[in-house]
Write a sequence for this structure.
């Protein structure tokens, strides 16, 4: 599927379907309202766009920041660091309360790049990048987290959710990116990633004690409260 220059902001369908989940003119309006970011985040946005690295962008970034601040989260877990863009939004949200972010990434080149960006953001003491396969690292974690953000390979979402749910404190928030996967989940898409996302959305939505909603922002953001 052809991807346009700004597709990292609002990824379109991953298979041959007519449209994604948002309207271009609405996206232009929403992104147009977003206040400028600092030099580092804007540099990361440009760099991600030029290399087709799928970062969450400024709207989901601000949404994560607001969720973490409003929930007064101190300990955050992230699955899928990429270049550290979402981690920096989360790190900035928790640092005034002396909180921390643990973020897992399996691609060594991405780990290096994320660590460089995190250092440039002055968040080296706030964000810890763990290099490894999330499905191997997650079972070894024992701390409880106030907020868990999942944005890894889509195929592992169903298995990663079980671990994230276990690691979340009661009253904590589980947030997942790409829940609508370009709209393909609503059209019965059959790729491995789409099938994983369909299963994930169904399992999280029906999970006992989790209060879940999916917001059609960018590529769909799932927010689930552990009651
Ligand atoms: C893709 C992955 C993401 O996490 C994202 O936010 C957008 C796109 C992808 O793999 O295409
Ligand atoms: Mg994503």
């Amino acid at each position: 599927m052809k991807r346009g220059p700004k597709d990292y902001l609002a990824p379109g369908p991953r298979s041959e379907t007519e449209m994604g989940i948002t309207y271009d003119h609405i996206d232009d309006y929403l992104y147009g309202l977003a206040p400028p970011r600092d030099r580092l985040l804007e540099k990361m946005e440009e760099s991600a766009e030029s290399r087709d690295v799928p970062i969450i962008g400024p709207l989901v970034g601000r949404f994560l920041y607001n969720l973490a601040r409003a929930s007064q989260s101190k300990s955050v877990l992230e699955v899928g660091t990429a270049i550290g863009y979402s981690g920096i939004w989360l790190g900035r949200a928790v640092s005034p309360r002396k909180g921390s972010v643990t973020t897992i990434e399996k691609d060594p080149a991405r780990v290096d790049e994320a660590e460089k960006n995190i250092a440039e953001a002055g968040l080296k003491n706030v964000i810890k990048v763990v290099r490894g396969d999330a499905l191997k690292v997650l079972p070894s974690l024992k701390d409880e987290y106030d907020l868990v953000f999942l944005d890894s390979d889509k195929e592992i979402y169903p298995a990663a959710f079980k671990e994230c749910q276990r690691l979340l404190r009661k009253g904590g928030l589980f947030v997942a990116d790409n829940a609508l996967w370009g709209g393909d989940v609503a059209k019965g898409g059959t790729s491995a990633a789409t099938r994983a996302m369909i299963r994930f959305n169904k399992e999280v939505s029906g999970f006992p004690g989790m209060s879940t909603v999916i917001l059609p922002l960018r590529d769909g953001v799932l927010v689930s409260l552990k009651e």
